[in-house]
Amino acid sequence: MSLKQLIINCSKNDTKAQSELYQLFSSKLFSICLKYSKNYAEAEDNLQDAFLTIFNKISQYDNKGSFEGWLKRITINTALQRYRNQGVFEIINEELIEDVELDIEDDDLTIDFLLNIIQELPDRYRLVFNLYALDGYSHSEIAEMLNISLGTSKSNLARARKLLIEKIEIFKASLNSQSL
């Protein structure tokens, strides 16, 4: 069945088509959920909620642009909505700290390690970091999505990078002490 037909059938609440769509995209969307969640269980909840929204709104997809991109936006917005509802983005000191470059080109750093330390970031930092560094949104887009100021977006990104660098340095130091 073509993707176009699958979308049409899903819009008619065809459970077989919905199951097929889920099978096609759940692993890609789950990886997005992992980036925006504190842990695996929360990522599973976000994926479930995202698919509920996808199936409820699939008839609104107008075949303009990438269907996968449409799914990705819904998934990210679903995860972000959880944090908006929790008041994660209450304004704190917005003072811009010096931005630092994050260099993760290191053979000792696995994807699992990097995902783990990103998930350990405070919510406001993790979400801005993911939106900016991993998904390519601009600070103005992030500010609008999260209902925060441009300065808060920039500050949260800088703080996220600083925390990640500290965690990477601690990890590398522990590797060096083990090899002595």
From TrEMBL:
Residues 114-164 form the RNA polymerase sigma factor 70 region 4 type domain. GO terms for molecular function: DNA binding; sigma factor activity. Keywords: Sigma factor, Transcription, Transcription regulation. Coiled coil: none annotated. Pfam families: Sigma70_r2, Sigma70_r4_2. InterPro entries: RNA_pol_sigma-70-like (IPR039425), RNA_pol_sigma-70_dom (IPR014284), RNA_pol_sigma70_r2 (IPR007627), RNA_pol_sigma70_r4_t2 (IPR013249), RNA_pol_sigma_r2 (IPR013325), RNA_pol_sigma_r3/r4-like (IPR013324), WH-like_DNA-bd_sf (IPR036388). It comes from the Bacteria. GO terms for biological process: DNA-templated transcription initiation. Residues 21-87 form the RNA polymerase sigma-70 region domain. Belongs to the sigma-70 factor family. ECF subfamily. This is RNA polymerase subunit sigma-70.
